[in-house]
Structures are given as C-alpha cells and as structure tokens.
Amino acid sequence: MLDRREFLKLMAAGTAAGVMATAPLAAAARLTALTSNPKFKAVAFDAYTIFDPRPIFALVEKLYPGKGTEFGRVWRSKQFDYAWQRLLAGYYEDFWKITQDALVYAAHMQKVELTQEKRERLLAACLMLKAWPEVPLALGTLKEMGVRLAFLSNFTPMMLEANVKSAGLKGVFDHIISTDAAKTYKPAPAAYQLGLDTLKLTREEILFVPFAGWDTAGAKMFGLKTFWVDRLGLPLEELGVTPDAKGSSLAEVVSYVRG
Questions:
Q1: Is 115 exposed, middle or buried (0-12, 13-18, 19+ CB in 10 A)?
Q2: Quick one: pLDDT at residue 259?
Q3: Which of 106, 125, 144 is the last residue of a domain?
Q4: Catalytic machinery residues
Q5: How many domains would you assign to the chain?
Q6: How far is the C-alpha of 20 from the C-alpha of 132, rounded, in Å?
C-alpha cells in the first residue's frame, strides 16, 4: 500500500522519474545474469513496486472533472485508515472490502454521486494495472540469476492475481503472498513473517522491495533486508530505521542483488 502523501505526489506527477533502465544497464544485466552470484535467494515485492497505479487517478479525474485529485486523496487515505483502525481494533476485513468502503466514503465526502456504473469502473481499474516500464526486464534478469520471486502485499489474492494477469506477468512469480493469509496488514510483524514461512528462508536470505517509506521501516523493524524503490523521491520516514539500500527503479535492485 501507499500512504496518503505518496499517492498525492503520484497523482500530481505527470510522468515517473527514473523508472526506465538505460539500454547499457539493461544489456549489462542480461550479460552478467548467468555468471553472477546473487546476494539473496529470494526477492519479495510490494505490489506497487511492480504495478503502476496512475491510471486509477486518471480515471477518477475523468469521471469527476476538477475533483479527481481530492477524491483520490480521500479514497486512498481512507483505505489506510480503515485497514489500520480495524487492525488495532482486532476486527479484520480484507483489502478489497476496505477499498470498496473507502470509495463510498470518498464519494460522500466529496458530495458527488457514485453511480453503479462509476463504482464498477473505478473498482475494475484497481484490477487492471500494468507494470512499470522496467519491470519485465528486471524480473527476467533476476530469474536468470536463479533468484526466487514473490509478492508480499496487503492486496488480496484476487487483486494480486488479476493485476499479474493484466500486467502480463503470469508465471513470473514463484509465490504470491497476501497478508490476508494471516488476517493482518503490513507493517504488523505477522505480515512479514508470512514471507519467511512461505519461502522457508531466513531474514538474511530474503530481500524485501517496498514502495512506501512506512513499509520499508516496518520491514526493517522486523529484521528483513530492504531495498526501498523510492519512485517519488521522498525522504526517509523518521522511525529510527533505514533501508539497506535505496533507488528509484527495479534496475537498481538487480544491480544490488548481483552484488
């Protein structure tokens, strides 16, 4: 998940900065993949390091001209509010249900009509995401290096499977891990523990690649090695921990794993 500051900045950005690997870097990754000795046995990704959510915001603005930015901000902020409030209260709902509840709240907050057609289009957009430009090459190179690939996401299994298919990445990931299996959300320790239990590896053998600063901090607090893909150029969260490495694209993750 992204937090509200990150989504606001993403909505305002017309293009993604630094997301495409250069041709020389891509060629080098291919040439050295088979002879490398990777630093990790597996890499686990947050959903938004793989999927580009910008089309969702574009659709919100199209359906509600002039109100798209604020509508989107409220929708996303309520997703996190509802997830974490329920987690603290000990009352779990999966992320797809929370996404729908947050959408209804946003419409009420903005005093706009959420017709059935608009509701269906907005929710469908959440299941039809594409990959960031450099993702296919980066994932292919990691697989050639013998690294196992996994998702570790708050998305439900249905959301992950739908977007994997939409992004043309079916069969690429060895494991699709949803925190729904533990009826919790990141940054709860039980969410990150799912990665260890599923991959059957130690913390030192897994690299976690988050999109959000808070997810980076949560994973570090749990003891995972982390590479923060900070596509938005945000500062580190002031939570007393720092990632093991930081970059703006998956091409840099490949270089880091190669060692």
A1: exposed
A2: 82
A3: 125
A4: 46
A5: 2
A6: 8
